Amino acid sequence: xxxxxxxxxxxxxxxxxxxxxxxxxxxxxxxxxxxxxxxxxxxxxxxxxxxxxxxxxxxxxxxxxxxxxxxxxxxxxxxxxxxxxxxxxxxxxxxxxxxxxxxxxxxxxxxxxxxxxxxxxxxxxxxxxxxxxxxxxxxxxxxxxxxxxxxxxxxxxxxxxxxxxxxxxxxxxxxxxxxxxxxxxxxxxxxxxxxxxxxxxxxxxxxxxxxxxxxxxxxxxxxxxxxxxxxxxxxxxxxxxxxxxxxxxxxxxxxxxxxxxxxxxxxxxxxxxxxxxxxxxxxxxxxxxxxxxxxxxxxxxxxxxxxxxxxxxxxxxxxxxxxxxxxxxxxxxxxxxxxxxxxxxxxxxxxxxxxxxxxxxxxxxxxxxxxxxxxxxxxxxxxxxxxxxxxxxxxxxxxxxxxxxxxxxxxxxxxx
Length: 416
Fold this sequence. Notes:
Blueprint: H1 5-22, H2 28-36, H3 40-72, H4 74-94, H5 98-111, H6 115-125, H7 131-157, H8 163-182, H9 202-209, H10 215-229, H11 231-244, H12 248-277, H13 279-299, H14 303-314, H15 319-330, H16 336-366, H17 377-400
Helix pairs in contact: 1-6, 1-7, 1-8, 2-3, 3-4, 3-5, 3-6, 3-16, 4-5, 4-8, 6-7, 6-16, 7-12, 7-15, 9-16, 10-15, 10-16, 10-17, 11-12, 11-16, 12-13, 12-14, 13-14, 13-15, 13-17, 16-17
């Protein structure tokens, strides 16, 4: 059991990072109005700034933390980040100005950029042919945290807008103490490399990681997949209300159902699916399945169709951990943190781009006088992006060529 405790800490940490994204959503309008004496419209503007600041910091600092973990080890990066997060939430709980709240979200975005280090830790302790399964566990933990964040924020925010931050600070302290006791270092000193600032930023990290055989193509596919897949949290509430007149309760229930289905796929079913398909074929068929489901959402004419599509589309969540495993095979022990940092930055950049693109698509096809009126337009746009990623993976990776590079398609019967 004790051998599993480090894994428990890693999963809790990743879930906690994800909770930080959604924890403040339910309480932010009231909190901003209390510190700014602003109306709801102005509070919404500041809410957008605070959310963007968090995402931008994750984009900018994920490679930095990943590179620091390649130099100093995974344990100190994870523990220091958790300690900083605990202090940051405590400061936000008593913040009396909008500028202190903004500073708090900036620091939180940096401290929560540890998914790359968590992934690197998992790569250190897992055999290459099992990495996709354990990456799936981390993705499942992130998904659970993404679900729990708004739920906890909403429940505690009903008591006091600052209550979620107090509880978050308390939980961070407990998890720090837990990790300090149970988490051993996974990267031995002889496998570490020197820290270089030119590699510890999104562009520099992308340049170095992109030189690994077959990885550049997978990075492009992953980026396309992430922008497309973020359509769910960005548009879901607007789409289901506009298309089917769903209530807030129905929207919340459907989101929870989707999140739990994804967690089930990434945490459990992936261990059954990958040994049968292999990582490359899992990506190939997963992208196809995602594309078909996005088209289904875009053209759905009745609410019951959504409930049918939900568990099917959740199966497509196998794509991300399978692609992460393919890339992880091509990185050395001293590059796992750098690789995961680049991937985390791409994810954060997707969280910045996708809301801008998908909300615009929704606006143009649901505004007064829109012809055709199509609330599902963002899902159809996402299907096009998914098709682009699928095409690049299916054909571009074959041109990458050799046995050590990425292989794709239904004829690939083994993990790449």
